[in-house]
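Changelog note: in this version the structure field was regenerated for every chain. One regenerated record is shown below for reference.
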Amino acid sequence: MAADVLFLDVETPNGHNDRISSIGLIRCDCNGAVLAEDSYLVDPEEPFSEINMRLTGISHADVAGAPTFPEIWSRSLKSLFDGAALVAHNASFDLAVLWKLFDAYELDRPEWNYACTKELAKQWHPEYPDYKLPTVCRCLD
């Protein structure tokens, strides 16, 4: 039986890229039917940089009172990730941040199969002017 696919994106509060301020996820079955969709603001327990606040639109005030990553992981995320193949645009970034999170909070790191839409676009469409997500989406219509 084919695995479900979990599309994800994380936002970071600063340039250390070892904490998240939000995570968005969509889990689909192998036929593309959406099984779950959610996003979470996360208290990164770290300061925010001006550049990251401009890039993400998320500030310390936005995450005030939000749960930390371990709280969200045990309450919701672990079951969303369980058994799914992960897909992200620039997956090496998102997964590196997640792995650093697991290390920082001394959580067991799951083993994931994943695909990177940025790398796939580079392989399949070398003619694209760049491989930023808006460009890839525009080119694929």
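Spot check on this record: The CA atoms of residues 11 and 55 lie 9 Å apart. Residues 91-104 form the longest helix (14 residues).
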